[in-house]
């Protein structure tokens, strides 16, 4: 069996505060100030709208909340799309922070909604999910919404964001150009790597996406348990190959368990089938225990 490189690449699903302004409006001047004060607008800032697109940060990990007052047409160039907006439960008395169960619940809702919006699992694609909650001032005046946003990234890791045109709705149906398939490993060392760049599976390549799994529980695996957690990729890769863990001729490269990701709510590990001895050509799906094609 091939040697296995276990490399951890980080991604940060940002929980970022929103900024905005509130406006107040009065009735036309009628000499009665009490009428004007009575018609002032609700002081809460605008609630984000589903189906709106925005221009934001160029790097996914450093993404910041869009200006909700300045959406751009999704048919035109943009970086981010809001696909779901919801309300936090009434019992939530404090603004959710990273790692808090109410924030995780919001993130889980976004993940569930993303499957219907995208037509598949976002972990299996060059996509990056962010959850936004009201700023402290917004929270203080009663804002209780949370917004789910998705961007497309240029490589497997959530680095540079794609300036794209068109909605990501159903992006994981049909040809699914953003889906993880075959990639080259950039900066591979004995126990680390820098990025995975998409490659046509017909060309020589290093790894192929095999699937992902969610780590159970709410406590992140300790340092001495991480390798054992990653080893669940053996079963994921074997299932993708249609082979056996003991007989297959490939190893794996995992991506996941970054501490910040865990705090954000992303408790998934992605698994990539990997041949340490040579580049492969063509997909290894259904390969079984045979030697990978080259």
From TrEMBL:
Signal peptide: 1-25
Keywords from the UniProt entry: Signal
Residues annotated as domain Septum formation-related: 63-271
Pfam family, one: Septum_form
InterPro entries: Septum_form
Protein name (database record): Septum formation-related domain-containing protein
Lineage of producing organism: Bacteria, Bacillati, Actinomycetota, Actinomycetes, Micromonosporales
